[in-house]
Amino acid sequence: MKSGRIKKVTLGLAAVGFGLIIIASQFPSQKLSIDTLPLTKNERSSDAPDFASINDIAAKKVTFFDYLRPKVEQQNRVVAREREFLLSIKQSVKDQRALTELEREQLTTIAHNYRFEARKLDEESIKGLLERVDVLPTEMVLVQAANESGWGSSRFAVEGNNYFGQWCFSKGCGLVPNARSSGLNHEVARFKDVDASVASYLNNVNTNPAYQELRKVRSWLRAAEQPVEAKDLIPSLTAYSERKQDYVDELLDMLVHNRRLL
């Protein structure tokens, strides 16, 4: 776990004419860009397999990927729908078509959720928002979840539905790490279910300044009409772990060795 403190995000939102103003604090650290709501009890997802009880490594991997893949794909579909909406808005702006009130409200909500700042509504601002509102390769998400959760067997995955090692800073928002260094006050976030953990991870990678390079690489690939693959984005995840390049190398190694299962 990293030692840096993550500031709680403060958001302000206002609509100005056809434009938007989104004001968000910057995140100096890596894994979590939002605080989770505290839960009053352990709410482990009821459909999660008992991964720790699966002794056969190959069987555990298959079970893990088969369990998590549909959840990742579902959350990616949510992002894909938001992106499709933004592409339609971009075309409307290009055609100088006035947006409906419902479209403006939806656009404001998406910008808010993705912590995007824009002073006016134009093609350039929509382009900037589209850089954030995009799916992540399922293979990348799966290998990172496997790495961070110990193939679903970690305490944080079992007790907190947290498959990505995400942190939070409100007292009681998560689980206190057993090896937390003196003077630190972070907790490992606890989610109501695994779907919420995946959604939070996607939002974190799509908004946190630590992953701006990843988003730029993805945007370049889109512009070049090239496939966006895990092997192209994983190298930009050095900020996710204190292990830096060693962490990235491990993810890339996992990607190669589990290719047939992914």
TrEMBL record:
One protein family per Pfam: Glucosaminidase
Top-rank lineage group of the source organism: Bacteria
GO molecular function: amidase activity
Residue span(s) of domain Mannosyl-glycoprotein endo-beta-N-acetylglucosamidase-like: 127-222
Gene3D superfamilies hit by this protein: 1.10.530.10
Name of the molecule in the record: Glucosaminidase
